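F.,

This is the one I mentioned.
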């Protein structure tokens, strides 16, 4: 097991006294998908949530946290976020905007507090997994704790 260092996301959870468990894995640079993570780590794909960064035509950057095997509904997310349309940001914008790289983007601890929309299916589980802010580490925490940490909005976005 490799040594886990504290990421910005983990430091924020600590400062909020939110309980979490870190899970390390060896990331595959050729396949950073949540499905691949589930297959190789033994984590439950239904409880792995991926973080997507999009841009709304009215709101600017927004964050979507959705089940790892699903795709975000741009129409539902636009409606939930008060936009007419939303689209994924370009990959080259991800790190300058959030401070995170693809495959290691956490909903917690981005450079700014962007509006964050969490799919309602997260509430079906006692705990879910989200990126800890680096490739190779997932944070397991209660979905309501994630909502509280990012001032998230629960809605149907898949």
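My design for it:
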């Amino acid at each position: 097991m490799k040594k886990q260092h504290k990421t910005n996301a983990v430091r924020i959870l600590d400062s909020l006294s939110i309980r979490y468990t870190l899970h390390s894995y060896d990331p595959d640079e050729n396949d950073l998908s949540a499905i691949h993570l589930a297959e190789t780590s033994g984590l439950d794909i239904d409880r792995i949530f991926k973080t997507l960064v999009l841009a709304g035509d009215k709101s600017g950057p927004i964050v979507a946290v959705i089940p790892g095997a699903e795709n975000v509904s741009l129409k539902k997310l636009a409606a939930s976020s008060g936009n007419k349309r939303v689209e994924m940001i370009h990959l080259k914008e991800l790190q300058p905007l959030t401070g995170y790289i693809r495959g290691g983007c956490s909903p917690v601890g981005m450079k700014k507090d962007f509006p964050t929309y969490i799919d309602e299916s997260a509430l079906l589980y006692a705990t879910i997994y989200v990126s800890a802010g680096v490739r190779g580490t997932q944070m397991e925490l209660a979905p309501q704790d994630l909502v509280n940490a990012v001032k998230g909005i629960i809605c149907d976005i898949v």
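DSSP finds five helices and eight strands in the chain.

Talk soon.
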